[in-house]
Design a protein that fits this description.
Layout lengths: L9 H9 L7 H12 L3 E4 L6 H11 L10 E4 L3 H14 L7 E4 L5 H9 L4 E4 L1 H9 L10 E5 L1 H4 L2 H12 L6 E6 L4 H8 L7 E4 L10 E7 L5 H11 L5 E4 L3 H13 L4 E4 L5 H12 L5 E4 L14 E4 L6 H8 L9 E7 L2 H14 L3 E3 L6
Parallel strand pairs: 1-6, 1-7, 2-4, 2-5, 3-4, 5-6, 8-13, 8-14, 9-11, 9-12, 10-11, 12-13
Helix pairs in contact: 2-3, 3-4, 6-8
Bound molecules: adenosine monophosphate.
Length: 372
């Protein structure tokens, strides 16, 4: 099966080819025809399996360029993801006279207002900035035909729930709603159905095996006081080319990066407290390999397509099981190999590790050589 069978317009087909996509992934195969038909859907698929293109391709196909009004709205939880989705849509809509803009906090609102005035067909937004623009009457959503919630479980979670209610209640009632995520707890699924039409479809290609099979997963028993020195040893010994380290707080992320640098390991930290420009430049240096170790909060745990990450290290144990899956999903993207190592430093974390093992049904082995 290739993309031709979706009967997409020629220019879109060319853009897909230029992007280097020759065959649709499973989530694309299953959801593109349903979205083209206008169905509401929940799409659940493992991270790194092409979810962004699964909704972007049909959105682009359905844009009417004779109008310069916003016809599709994609809501995402973080600024980085907004930029990434915008880039994917721009690449896939190349040469088709389609305008796509990402609006997010941290960038000049005047610039975004100006760009909106010029006319956009698709807007990718984080909730906070989108609501600002709505309250200021700087964005007109009255022609929106499709709304996508990416990382939908996060978007419907407590922190964002009211924002999403507000945004959706200000979009036309007659619309198509699409929800995509790698994880979809039952409670969130129930909540989600409030926003979907009765005939919505649930496309689940995660095959109940939540963790990505290509990831070799390990845990290490670490004395809480020796976490940084253990991390430095692991980074050196396992020849990590591109390693993403997850911490729970901004302060820990900064501290860990500093301590690594003191031990001659080149590292930077990234978190939501940094200016947007700085965040973008750190991400760029990480993706080109200039920064081999990036220490992050959960800002980067979702959706981000950071290419060729060889290792994920959970310096701090993830708070929720879903977070573990999202974090380790930053490696082994699109069929590549990867390794994830989780530090366990107290009884609760060991117990949680046992639960994780049974949940994801794939082995998480102990790395004894680094134990302390
Ligand atoms: P996503 O799950 O959307 O973050 O996508 C993960 C990666 O897969 C991105 O680097 C995409 O560019 C890539 N990708 C998406 N669809 C395809 C496809 N059909 N063939 C090859 N690569 C793809």
């Amino acid at each position: 099966m290739n993309f031709n069978e979706f009967e997409l317009n020629d220019r879109l087909a060319v853009a897909i080819e230029l992007k280097g996509y020759s065959k649709p992934s499973l989530i694309q195969l299953k959801s593109i025809p349903l979205i083209l038909e206008g169905k509401d859907l929940i799409g659940q698929a493992r991270t790194g399996t092409g979810k962004t293109a699964a909704f972007s391709i049909p959105l682009i196909e359905r844009i009417n360029t004779a109008s310069n009004r916003i016809q599709a709205l994609v809501v995402v939880p973080t600024r980085e993801l907004a930029v990434q989705v915008q880039n994917e849509i721009r690449a896939l809509s190349k040469g088709q006279g389609i305008h796509c803009l990402a609006v997010f906090g941290g960038q000049s609102i005047a610039f975004q207002v100006n760009e909106l005035r010029r006319g956009q067909h698709l807007v990718v937004a984080t909730p906070g900035r989108l609501m600002d623009l709505m309250r200021r009457n700087n964005i007109n959503l009255s022609s929106v035909k499709t709304v996508v919630l990416d990382e939908a479980d996060k978007m419907l979670d407590m922190g964002f729930r009211d924002d999403i209610d507000f945004i959706l209640s200000n979009c036309p009632r007659e619309r198509q709603t699409l929800l995509f995520s790698a994880t979809m707890p039952d409670e969130i699924k129930r909540l989600a159905s409030r926003h979907l039409s009765l005939g919505h479809v649930f496309v689940n290609v995660s095959e109940d095996r939540l963790a990505v099979e290509k990831i070799n997963q390990f845990f290490v028993s670490v004395d809480p006081k020796k976490k940084v020195s253990t991390l430095a040893r692991i980074v050196r010994k396992r020849h990590m080319t591109k390693c993403l380290v997850f911490c729970r707080t901004r302060r820990t992320a900064e501290w860990v990066a500093r301590e690594l640098s003191k031990r001659n390991v080149r590292a930077r930290s990234i978190h939501g407290g940094l200016r947007q420009n700085l965040r973008q430049s750190i991400l760029k240096n990480f993706s080109t390999g200039r920064i081999p170790v990036l220490v992050s909060t959960d800002l980067l745990s979702r959706g981000m397509d950071l290419s060729d990450i060889s290792h994920i290290i959970n310096f701090d144990f993830p708070k929720e099981r879903e977070t573990y899956i999202h974090r380790i999903g930053r490696t082994a993207r699109f069929g590549k190999q990867g390794e994830a190592i989780t530090f366990c430093s107290n009884v609760r974390e060991f117990e949680e590790m046992e639960r994780l093992k049974s949940l994801i049904q794939s082995p998480i082995k102990e790395l004894k050589e680094f134990a302390s």
